[in-house]
Amino acid sequence: MDAYRAIVTKRDRREYARQAVAEDVLRRILQAGRMAGSSSNSQPLRFIVLRDDAQKQKLAPAGPGTGPLVRAPLAIVICLEKGRRDFDVGRAAQNMMLAAWNEGVFSCPIGLREDAITRSVLEIPENYAAAIGIAFGYPSGEPSSSRFGTPRLPMEELVHYERW
Amino acid sequence: MDAYRAIVTKRDRREYARQAVAEDVLRRILQAGRMAGSSSNSQPLRFIVLRDDAQKQKLAPAGPGTGPLVRAPLAIVICLEKGRRDFDVGRAAQNMMLAAWNEGVFSCPIGLREDAITRSVLEIPENYAAAIGIAFGYPSGEPSSSRFGTPRLPMEELVHYERW
User: Fold this and answer.
1) Residues of A in contact with B102 (CB under 8 A)
2) In chain A, what are the domain boundaries?
3) Smallest CA–CA distance from B108 into chain A, residue
4) In chain A, how many H helices and how many E strands?
5) pTM
6) How far is B19 from chain A (nearest CA, A)?
7) How far is B54 from chain A (nearest CA, A)?
8) Nearest CA in chain A to B96
9) Tens-digit pLDDT profile for residues B86-137
10) ipTM of the complex
């Protein structure tokens, strides 16, 4: 798919089929995250790939909206080095989600607020923390979540020229 | 360009030709940023487009590495609503930079640490703050900055399975 078309059509989706995400697609998702730029090329991220249902289930209490992450056939948790910017997490996450979308794989970022839980379940070392989870899966055919297709701000409200 | 190819080949570049970025390319960059997902569709971002050299020059003291932003023919400052996540800034910035790359336009995120300066120069309201600047421009033909092509971490070091 053309890059611009992938970018502007990508929607976050929370419902997925049970079908496993193909290995070569996972490899491209990881490579997309790996190639994202970072501040001064500090490369402050690490990725934890989860496909084991029992392991994903242990993350259920890590945030208020973890259901889709637990149910998705593939979850990736992005860990961020302490003192580094969440901005770089967003860059890598977007790369991963666009690479997935380009292959017909839906995705959605899932907040993981409970540091004690993610740290213990995922055995994250002291100098890193879980910054975000991303759920991935093929479309389920179920009706979309209510937020799908929510309109965006009009350009005139979003964009200013030279000053606000 | 295919989306995956755009994602994995994109490099941050800090040197640009003086040539203005075409209007239709700017429109697609802005639309790419506009369509980025955000937490609960909160749409916490606003974009300020800068092409006026005098206005860009006023941002020079806003950070230690603002030179490329001042010299670039096009700069976009992303403003973030207070209390919202820098993660969403990264998602939109990556969308914009990939849309640019897809059209042969180089880019690089530039930190803007000095809130008092960005707020005053760009007339940013109290409940928002400048989160990042992005410099955009066509390739200059000059030698690349030293960080161009810096190798990424090997996959084995970057990626863990089920737990760290």
Assistant:
1) 2-4
2) 3-140
3) A37
4) 7, 5
5) 0.96
6) 18
7) 10
8) A7
9) 999 999 999 999 999 999 999 999 999 999 999 999 999 999 999 999 999 9
10) 0.96
